[in-house]
Specification:
With 160 residues, the chain is mainly beta. The protein folds into 2 domains: 56 residues, no CATH class; 75 residues, no CATH class. The protein contains 1 helix and 12 strands, in the order H-E-E-E-E-E-E-E-E-E-E-E-E. It has a 12-stranded antiparallel beta sheet with strand order 1-2-3-4-5-6-7-8-9-10-11-12, with no helix packed on it. It is elongated.
């Protein structure tokens, strides 16, 4: 009988709060450098200003995504890299948590790399796709939709 009670207590221990610590777990998460863990397990380690992520830092989501880069007033802003859970990687500019200005994304599934101008999270303007299998194309984008492209591997860059 004592063994059954002991076993029941041991099985219930994880349910009574011996989980991961949340909130500011180290440093200064108000105005300085600190580490903060949310209740869902997401974790930010980096610079803070007025209680918001501001400056350089890394946010790791429980879904597997990781952002390393600049923050402003709690949002991704400036230069940074986002490592997607599926293996894709975007490196470039950010504004208001969206891809912005020049950036490039490497697709894990096929090894292709696409560079281009981003505006409010979507490609907009000139772009370039370099494929692992020899694809090399220049692209024109309009608010996330490809307008035109042409095969760039036949361009003679030395021609006057």
């Amino acid at each position: 009988m004592i063994m059954k009670r002991l076993l029941l207590i041991l099985l219930c221990l994880p349910m009574i709060g011996f989980g991961q610590q949340t909130g500011c777990i180290s440093g200064d998460c108000e105005n300085g450098y600190g580490t903060y863990v949310w209740e869902n397990g997401s974790k930010y380690k980096g610079e803070w200003r007025n209680g918001e992520m501001h400056g350089l830092g890394t946010l790791t989501w429980t879904t597997g995504g990781v952002y390393k880069g600049e923050w402003k007033d709690g949002v991704r802003f400036g230069a940074g890299a986002y490592y997607y859970a599926d293996g894709n990687i975007y490196i470039g500019g950010w504004n208001d948590n969206k891809r912005h200005f020049w950036g490039g994304i490497k697709y894990e599934s096929n090894g292709n790399i696409r560079f281009g101008m981003y505006n409010s999270g979507v490609l907009n303007g000139a772009g370039w796709l370099v494929g692992k299998g020899g694809t090399n194309q220049i692209e024109m984008w309009d608010r996330g939709e490809m307008d035109a492209w042409f095969d760039a591997k036949y361009i003679d860059w030395n021609e006057n």
